[in-house]
Design a protein that fits this description.
Helix content is 48%, strand content 12%. The protein is α/β, with parallel strands linked by helices. Helix 3 crosses helix 5, helix 13 packs across helix 23 and helix 25 crosses helix 27. The protein is globular and about 95 Å long.
């Protein structure tokens, strides 16, 4: 007891905490080291003799003081945190306070920065591209493959030879593969060593993106171009100006206004019967896409469908189908993927919902209102300049959402406050030199914990990187190869793609090339057209696998040698997926009638459209307070924020929805987000049906409550 009391006294001493900090132990490391040190003393049978004597002196007040434990504590801390021995070196390596100094070639020239600021459809990018085309040499850096491809086409059509470079593709304008003086690329692929006359950085506001912001920071600070044309929201002007002040470069701002009027309507759509040609319904989940598209086609209308996980070729075909005046398809159903990268002839944008599921910095799921920036980006797609619609309109599906949408659109866009940074492979290699036994995931953790940034920057989210690092940790790879595999662009929610990366890494580690035949066996190519939604989703995952192979083939050409063959079958797969998307309502019907496992979330034809979090409460009320206690608890996930100013539909309306549809959109959303299991849903349905048969809509007696509890306990047993 005396030992424990004195150890806790040691832990609480401010002087000891200060000494720990001087030796590289911040509050978190100090706490972890103390827990380990205390466990070592209390549970170890072989405490060193000198430590034993010190403890004895302290406990029996024989000239000892708890501060005398510090040398032993520090020795123990260095055993569990080897980095403490080289903390000064590690701090220098992870010092991110002067990013402009990382690009000496750019600092060696005086660059002219021109910021083209304006909303969607204001011509800001057009003016920057005109300068790009008139220059002797130039580079365009965009956020999407579609945008890079568009500039590549535009440039070559204007007889300005231009190469295309994305993570998965290299297309040369010259037949002999000589580099052209112009290049259009995705922003992560831009070179900071090649000199250009003009550089264009598109969508600069993405410099604040939690995952990809570092790429815009790198381009802005590092491109070696006489003129840097930056395009994006005016909200980024102040940050760009401040960043350029640190490089000694001035920013010229050119402001643009929208070229066609955008009108927020005073009425909501209310019903899909009120759709008109040129309408685009924007949904924030794939399930809502499936639901709405089926409801539209049930009314005898054709619709095009665009969402994020579709291949670029399919998105372009769907956009072409919608834009074609001769095509009977006059309605578009899309996610916010239409916000950039596609030229669309939209007359009216209709928000199916104004809440969007997101994942916060801690990895927690949240459902929150869309931001002003997102709303403007999406709404601004209506009434594109040069299209057949010279005026854009925007509204919502539900009247209750329209008031909130107007509030959002009228709010000023929040200024972009900081630019993203990411550790480079060289920095991680230097860390590994000092900490040879640490895993790559641990190296990244230590780097981020020690990194120092000033107020203009932040360290980007490295969760995806760490996920892949942990996944392939057991595979023997050298550090540089391991780092490359961990930066592969994949969706970690796709099990098939993640499993494939694991197999790629394993075979790579054995020095066995990943051949075309191997890939065909793994993906079961050739593949047939999808018969249901589950098969369509799998085809999209296979397309991502082909993308992953191509991405790796440009980094490890010898080990992924069949890029040409893989690109050919990827084009064929794109055609197969296009057929599936054109028949998407048939796939939905097939999924429902066959009750395909994994397609449970595909909703019924007249399913109530997605609403807000407050509707959760209303549906729970319909089910009965007691019977839904577990569901109610599940919904209150820490970190979820309530959507402000959103009115729920009346309980009576929701009761009717529930009677008619059983599996409401809420239930599907909760299933999809992991807040509700199929077992819980079956139990809730069973309880509701029992209540309905008895003519009661609430659990108003003690016996019902007890019976319900007993049934639950039996099921658990």
């Amino acid at each position: 007891g005396e030992v424990l009391k004195n150890l806790n006294k040691f832990y609480k001493r401010k002087e000891i905490q200060r000494l720990g900090a001087e030796n590289g132990l911040d509050a978190r490391l100090f706490h972890q080291a103390f827990i380990s040190f205390r466990k070592y003393i209390m549970e170890s049978s072989s405490v060193s003799a000198d430590l034993h004597i010190i403890l004895n002196d302290i406990c029996f007040c024989l000239l000892g003081h708890v501060d005398d434990l510090f040398p032993f504590f520090l020795r123990h801390a260095k055993q569990i945190f080897p980095m403490l021995d080289c903390m000064d070196d590690l701090r220098k390596i992870s010092d991110l306070r002067l990013p402009p100094n990382w690009y000496p070639d750019a600092r060696a020239i005086q660059r002219k920065i021109i910021f083209h600021a304006g909303p969607t459809n204001s011509g800001k990018t057009y003016h920057a591209i005109q300068r790009f085309l008139s220059a002797k040499s130039g580079i365009y850096c965009g956020p999407l493959k579609l945008l890079a491809h568009e500039i590549f086409q535009k440039s070559n059509d204007a007889n300005v030879p231009c190469d295309l470079v994305t993570g998965e593709e290299r297309v040369y304008a010259n037949e002999d593969a000589r580099p052209a003086p112009h290049i259009a690329c995705t922003i992560e692929m831009c070179s900071t060593n090649t000199p250009y006359e003009v550089a264009v950085i598109d969508e600069i506001q993405m410099i604040r993106d939690p995952a990809r912001g570092w790429a815009w920071t790198r381009a802005l600070l590092g491109l070696c171009a006489e003129e840097i044309h930056v395009c994006g929201e005016a909200a980024a002007i102040d940050l760009v100006t401040e960043l350029m002040y640190t490089t000694g470069e001035e920013v010229e701002v050119r402001n643009y206004k929208r070229l066609t009027p955008l009108i927020v309507l005073d009425y909501a759509l209310e019903s899909l019967d009120n759709l008109r040609p040129g309408d685009c319904i924007v949904c924030f989940s794939k399930n809502d896409i499936y639901s709405v598209s089926r409801q539209i086609e049930a009314r005898g209308l054709e619709c095009a469908v665009i969402y994020g996980s579709l291949p670029p070729g399919t998105k372009l075909e769907q956009a072409k189908k919608f834009n074609d005046p001769a095509d009977p398809c006059k309605i578009l159903v899309a996610t916010d993927a239409i916000g950039m990268g596609l030229n669309l002839c939209i007359k009216r944008v209709i928000f199916n919902s104004i809440v969007k599921p997101t994942v916060n910095e801690k990895g927690e799921k949240e459902i929150d209102s869309i931001t002003t920036s997102q709303a403007l980006q999406i709404a601004g797609r209506a009434g594109r300049y040069g299209s057949s619609f010279q005026q854009g309109e925007v509204t919502t599906m539900h009247h209750d959402d329209l008031v909130q949408l107007k509030e959002i659109l009228n709010e000023p866009v929040r200024p972009v406050k900081a630019a993203g940074l990411h550790p480079t492979p060289e920095q991680i290699e230097m860390f590994a030199y000092h900490l040879p036994d640490a895993t790559l995931s641990n190296l990244i953790d230590i780097f981020v914990s020690l990194s120092q940034v000033d107020g203009l920057y932040f360290v980007c989210n490295i969760d995806d990187f760490k996920f892949l690092a942990d996944m392939i940790q057991h595979i023997p790879l050298n550090l540089r190869s391991r780092y490359v595999f961990c930066t592969a662009p994949l969706n970690r929610k796709e099990p098939f793609v993640c499993t494939t990366l694991l197999k790629f890494a394993r075979q790579f580690s054995r020095n066995e090339p990943l051949t075309f035949d191997w890939l065909c066996r793994h993906t079961k190519w050739p593949l047939a057209a999808p018969k249901n939604i589950k098969e369509l989703v799998h085809l999209e995952a296979v397309h991502d696998v082909f993308d992953l192979y191509l991405w790796l083939s440009y980094r490890f050409m010898d080990m992924f040698p069949d890029a040409v063959l893989v690109r050919e079958i990827q084009k064929k797969l794109d055609d197969i997926i296009q057929v599936g998307v054109c028949n998407i309502t048939k796939l939905i019907r097939a999924s429902q009638s066959a009750a395909v496992p994994g397609a449970a979330e595909v909703v019924s034809e007249d399913f109530p459209l997605s609403r807000t979090k407050r509707d959760t409460r209303t549906v729970l009320d319909c089910l009965g307070a007691k019977s839904t206690e577990a569901l109610s608890i599940a919904v209150e996930v820490p970190g979820e924020r309530r959507t402000k100013n959103l009115k729920a539909y009346r309980s009576a309306t929701r009761q009717e929805d529930l009677k008619s549809h059983g599996h409401g959109s809420l239930a599907n959303r909760l299933l999809r987000e992991g807040l509700l299991t199929q077992e819980m849903l079956r139990q809730l349905e069973s309880e509701w049906q029992n209540q309905h048969r008895n003519g009661r809509y609430g659990l108003d007696s003690k016996s019902d409550d007890e019976n319900s509890s007993k049934e639950t306990r039996k099921k658990k047993k």
